[in-house]
Amino acid sequence: MSKIRKILAVVLAVIMIMPFAMSAASAASPAAPEFKVSLVSETDTTVVVKFSLAKGSFNALDFTIYTSSAIKECTKIENTKSFNELVTDYIMNKDALITAISNPTAKKASVITTVSFSGSVDIFNITFSKKNSTPIKNTDIGIVIDNCAVTVNTGASGETNVNVTDDVKVAVSLMKFNFNETSIAMNYKDSRTVDVDTNYPASQLTWSSSNENVVKVDENGNLVATGKGTATITVTSADGQVNETCEVTVSYTIIQWIIIIVLFGWIWY
User: Fold this and answer.
1) Between β-strands 243-251 and 183-187, what pairing exists: parallel, antiparallel or unpaired?
2) What pTM value is reported for the model?
3) Which residues pair with 36 in a beta bridge?
């Protein structure tokens, strides 16, 4: 009977200790943050990208920017408006302080804070000069994380910094494509161009129609309504980043209905 009691005592002790052990294990191996680089603006001579925290948290970060031959130089690394507001909030709190350091010439930037900040926040706007008017690609700008630390609460022993540099992810998405219209209404035999917001060259986009008996589309997004009905226009990019659709509905005007019904237009029109 005493053996059974001892076994039960051990089992209960293990059950009680497990949550603390799991907590300590998770504290020792925190999730690394994820960052992203996205396009802010682009002209024939300059390009501005945004470096943001996309997911997770950190309290120390150093990174180096690498560019292709399409980029002449890095001319400016500055805090975004939202990051400046965050810095102000931290300074108002006596227990927290953020320091942001950037070196455009060396293409390096750092952020250090006494407490972690997390969520989704834009940190730096980075300006480059370009060699020519060709739109930049995702491969023209890269970020290498030199150092990244996450503050972890270890319970009774307080907080500690864990180096997660090797696990940090950075996604670069400089190319963009968006339909400015979710759906398009046309009349039979009308033609028009799809309104889009993109920096992709036309040669890198492929347009298609799900039903060319309703609407045809050429390589530049020009539509021609060929019959009554609904069809889906699909656009894909050579780099695989774009796969967008837009619905087109084609109708007859009153005059066209008269031609089709009264004048047997269904045969010849």
Assistant:
1) parallel
2) 0.66
3) 52, 171
